[in-house]
Design brief:
The protein is mostly helical and about 500 residues long. The protein is built from 27 helices and four strands. A hairpin with a 2-residue loop joins strand 3 and strand 4. It is globular and about 75 Å long.
Length: about 500
């Protein structure tokens, strides 16, 4: 298929995350081949850096939770506000000092606060490493593809518990699977500690399980509902509330290790964490047979025999293979990559590739690249704040250096790091990102970025970033700017740069 001079710019801005200096020229010979070559069995590129894996983070988190129990015990040991002088005197005579004065209690509280800060800072550094990858990678399509799936099956740091694992979630549950079968990706995602904590699955107990008969605990349907509504078949997929409840029952027992699992002497820590698994599972995942709701389950008309862990896995795989899943996620892919209201022909192409391949995401990606609708020259998508910041760095040939200014910029523009506002993930339409206040925030950031930029030839930056997409009006405005920062600001705020 012949390429036009515009195709390389389309590939790098629509399929990728923006052009870096010289990249349009390098890709121009075969833009489709550039994208197709990034579809690899090992998945998407990984951020650079030494970060805890899921098993190591589980150990940190378990320790943090154990410390929380001791801090609560310290607090209960303190004299209560409003107690009578006589009762305070009696309690003080019989118990240890109050936490505010007991050096050991103070040390325990401070140690827990330090552990929380360490986890939070590690997560922030993981986001910085991811942004640096996005800003510098030559595999822009694979990176955008991975970011799409991380958002489609989102986990958010709005909760500390899930935020503690969000970096590991992206690196271990999402990126390795983005060009494999969707059912494998979604199973890895649903069983990861980040998802189990984000949607409260770790606390779900089957009412008729061994543990349910002893505890005042019950079923939590959050994960089951989002599995069906957001991760697979969708709200119009034909399921009922009864199906959600049945799936929630099948998922009971899906959990993560706790301090109790570690209390086995003379065993290595890692081994102790893993002994809680009644059946093998991914690192950091525990299946607790004693909280699993026994019995046969029926979901969307299909019956699943009692099989412990395998019951929930079988239901999830069937949901992943369901025709409604192919239809919904094909449309979401087309809407993300091409247009908020995607061409029906493109959606049909993706759905057909999904269905024929049994959910092979590599085949779906190839269908997207091959579709003529993907290569229409008119840009129809508004960049999200993250896309905008990353593409600006790519245009300048730089990368974010520190987390704090990056975090503040994204917070100001409405997309704070790893913190999607709901399980739906970040919105993906122009209406969500192109309001007057949002554009003012982008303008302010553009001025700051332009002031800091170390480039002499702004016209060269514009041509390298946009290629044939650079319009005459924008080119003229850049040439007439009174200063280099003003010229760069005009480039970054131009319609050609803001759209992809």
């Amino acid at each position: 298929m012949a390429s036009s001079p515009t195709d390389a710019a389309i590939a790098l801005t629509r399929l990728g995350l923006g052009a870096s200096p010289g990249e349009i020229d390098r890709v121009a010979a075969d833009p489709r081949g550039w994208a197709t070559a990034q579809i690899r069995p090992q998945g998407a590129p990984q951020p650079s850096g030494q970060f805890a894996d899921t098993g190591q983070r589980v150990a940190q988190y378990v320790d943090y939770q154990s410390d929380a129990g001791q801090v609560r015990r310290d607090r209960r040991a303190a004299p209560q506000v409003g107690a009578t002088p006589a009762s305070v005197a009696a309690e003080t005579a019989q118990t240890a000092p109050a936490p505010d004065t007991d050096p050991d209690a103070v040390a325990r509280r401070e140690a827990r606060q330090a552990a929380r800060r360490e986890i939070t800072q590690d997560t922030a550094q993981e986001f910085l490493a991811r942004a640096q990858l996005s800003a510098t990678t030559d595999d822009g399509f694979a990176e955008r593809w991975a970011l799409f799936w991380a958002n489609a099956v989102t986990v958010s740091a709005v909760k500390f518990a899930s935020g503690a694992f969000v970096g590991q979630y992206e690196r271990e549950a999402i990126r390795p699977h983005v060009f494999g079968r969707f059912e494998d990706l979604v199973l890895a995602a649903e069983q990861h500690p980040a998802m189990l904590l984000y949607l409260d699955q770790a606390r779900s107990v089957g009412p008729d399980s061994l543990a349910g008969a002893r505890r005042n605990a019950g079923l939590n349907e959050n994960l089951a509902r989002e599995m069906m509504e957001l991760h697979t078949v969708g709200a119009d997929g034909g399921y009922t509330q009864a199906d959600v409840t049945e799936l929630a029952r099948a998922l009971t027992g899906w959990s993560i290790p706790t301090a109790r699992d570690q209390r086995q002497p003379n065993r290595p820590r890692r081994a102790r964490l893993m002994t809680a698994q009644a059946e093998p599972g991914p690192d950091g995942f525990v299946f607790r047979a004693n909280v699993h709701e026994p019995g046969v389950r029926t979901v969307m008309g299909k019956t699943y025999p009692a099989a412990g862990l395998a019951q929930g896995q079988a239901i999830l795989r069937d949901l992943a293979r369901h025709p409604a899943t192919a239809k919904r996620l094909s449309r979401r892919l087309a809407a993300h990559f091409v247009a908020d209201d995607p061409p029906p022909a493109l959606v049909a192409r993706l759905e057909d590739a999904w269905t024929r391949s049994g959910g092979d995401l590599a085949q779906v990606a190839r269908a997207l690249i091959d579709a003529p609708e993907t290569w229409t020259p008119q840009p129809a998508k508004i960049k999200t704040p993250y896309d905008f910041v990353v593409s600006t760095h790519r245009a300048l040939g730089t990368r974010p250096q520190r987390i704090q200014p990056l975090r503040q910029a994204l917070l100001d523009m409405g997309q704070p790091p790893f913190a999607a506002p709901s399980p739906e993930g970040w919105p993906d339409a122009a209406a969500d990102w192109a309001g007057p206040d949002a554009l003012v925030k982008r303008l302010n950031w553009s001025r700051t970025a332009a002031d800091l930029a170390q480039t002499a030839d702004t016209n060269a930056v514009a041509v390298a970033a946009l290629g044939p997409r650079l319009g005459d009006r924008t080119r003229l405005a850049i040439a007439r700017a009174e200063s280099r920062p003003e010229a760069l600001t005009l480039l970054f705020m131009s319609p050609e740069f803001q759209r992809r």
